[in-house]
């Protein structure tokens, strides 16, 4: 009996040690996610000759698509879906190819993407109140991105004067569906500008 | 009864062993030119309050207390500081683009307004880090100006 107890004790001790050591390792292994983005970036560079403008617009369009999906999740008050789509958007933001733009545009795009990625990442791990706070700045970033990259889609910039002292967002539809209030004030807002 | 004794021993031994696991200390004795206080003309009252309430986790230098050397507290702190700095590092302020500075200022205001920062687990021990409503308003209106 004594030996059994003792061996249980040893196992517990070993388990504690392994756990603590592996926690340490996990912390160290967090970094490489940006490395995988670089790989994708490189792949895109190599295929640039084939269809440069197409692939470039395609990436900007993909970002927009992910943004609109995220917006719809917020319109639907769906916290979990918005978390998932925030993660998707953060990834697609990293894939934007800036190489054909002028130097000042590239710098601006870099700043936009960096900021937008941070907001998208926060959206992927926040409650819905925070998601909406971040979505406000994200919308500004995406609007500024579109001003540089352009888009084939007709967009509507909509504006809700009530949320946080007045807040805008983009939509592909003219009808207002408010992502900041969702069902509690679904139609609050107006179209303030048409893009394209 | 014996089993309790064994568990106590195991816990004690484990506690002793984990003391030997090293942690990365967040310490730096120089203040870079990119520091928030170097870039902005911060009123001294606000500067002091930010240093007391925020800099332990949002800069490259933490004023450690004695218990920070004891595991597993040291791990807990290490993770918090790492996370805090990746969100916002006042020492790196000028390395952020204008766009990001604005974003950070907004987040600082939101976090302080809602009372999420400084964190409860921090102010529990660091009573001087607690922001009363006056200090809160001062910081918020200052950050608002910078925006």
Question: Could you explain the architecture of this structure?
Answer:
- With 196 residues, chain A is mostly helical.
- Chain A has one domain.
- Helix content of chain A is 65%, strand content 9%.
- Chain A has six helices and three strands; from the N terminus they run ααααααβββ.
- In chain A, strands 2-1-3 form a three-stranded antiparallel sheet.
- Chain A is globular, with a radius of gyration of 22 Å.
- Chain A starts with a helix and ends with a strand.
- Chain B is mostly helical and 147 residues long.
- Chain B has one domain.
- Helices cover 57% and strands 0% of the residues of chain B.
- Chain B contains eight helices and no strands.
- The radius of gyration of chain B is 19 Å and the shape is elongated.
- Chain B starts with a helix and ends with a helix.
- The model of chain B has no long low-confidence stretch (mean pLDDT 91).
- The interface between A and B is medium-sized, with 23 and 22 residues.
Write the layout of secondary structure elements.
The complex is a heterodimer of chains A (196) and B (147).
Chain A: H1 2-28, H2 33-46, H3 48-75, H4 79-93, H5 103-123, H6 128-149, E1 155-160, E2 167-171, E3 190-195
Helix pairs in contact in A: 3-4, 3-6, 4-5, 5-6
Chain B: H1 2-18, H2 36-39, H3 44-53, H4 55-58, H5 73-87, H6 98-113, H7 120-123, H8 133-146
Helix pairs in contact in B: 6-8
Strand order of the largest sheet of chain A: 2-1-3
User: What is the domain total for the residues of chain B?
Assistant: 1
Low-confidence stretches of chain B: none
- How does the major sheet of chain B shape up? none
Approximate strand percentage of chain B: under 5%
Major β-sheet profile of chain A: 3 strands, antiparallel
Query: What is the number of beta strands of chain B?
Result: 0
Structural class of chain A: mainly alpha
DSSP strand count of chain A:
3
Helix content of chain B: 55-70%
The fraction of residues assigned to DSSP E strands of chain A is: 5-15%
Report the radius of gyration of chain A as a whole number of Å. 22 Å
What does the oligomeric state look like here?
Answer: heterodimer
Low-confidence stretches of chain A: 17-52
Order of helices and strands of chain A: HHHHHHEEE
- Using only C-alpha atoms, the radius of gyration of chain B works out to 19 Å
């Amino acid at each position: 009996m004594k030996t059994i107890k003792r061996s249980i004790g040893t196992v517990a001790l070993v388990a504690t040690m392994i756990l603590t050591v592996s926690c340490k390792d996990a912390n160290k292994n967090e970094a490489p996610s940006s490395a995988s983005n670089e790989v994708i970036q490189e792949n895109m560079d190599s295929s640039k000759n084939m269809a440069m403008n197409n692939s470039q617009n395609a990436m900007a369009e993909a970002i927009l698509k992910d943004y609109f999906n995220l917006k719809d999740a917020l319109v639907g008050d769906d916290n979990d879906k918005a978390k998932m789509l925030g993660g998707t958007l953060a990834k697609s933001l990293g894939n934007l190819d800036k190489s054909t733009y002028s130097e000042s545009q590239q710098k601006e795009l870099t700043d936009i993407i960096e900021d937008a990625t941070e907001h998208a990442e926060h959206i992927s791990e926040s409650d819905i109140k925070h998601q909406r706070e971040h979505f406000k700045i994200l919308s500004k970033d995406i609007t500024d991105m579109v001003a540089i990259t352009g888009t084939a889609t007709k967009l509507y910039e909509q504006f809700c004067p009530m949320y946080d002292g007045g807040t805008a967002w983009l939509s592909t539809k003219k009808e207002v569906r408010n992502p900041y209030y969702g069902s509690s004030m679904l139609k609050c807002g107006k179209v303030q500008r048409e893009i394209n | 009864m014996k089993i309790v004794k064994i568990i106590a021993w195991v816990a004690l031994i484990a506690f002793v062993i984990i003391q030997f696991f090293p942690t990365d200390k967040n310490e730096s004795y120089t203040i870079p030119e990119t520091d928030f206080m170097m870039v902005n003309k911060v009123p001294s009252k606000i500067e002091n309050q930010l240093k007391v309430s925020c800099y332990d986790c949002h800069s490259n230098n933490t004023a450690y207390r004695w218990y920070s050397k004891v595991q597993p507290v040291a791990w807990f702190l290490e993770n918090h500081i790492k996370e805090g700095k990746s969100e916002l590092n006042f020492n790196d302020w000028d390395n952020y683009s204008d766009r990001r500075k604005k974003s950070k200022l907004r987040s600082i205001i939101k976090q302080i307004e809602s009372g999420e920062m400084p964190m409860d687990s921090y102010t529990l021990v660091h009573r001087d880090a607690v922001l009363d409503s006056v200090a809160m308003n001062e910081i918020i209106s200052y950050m608002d100006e910078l925006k």
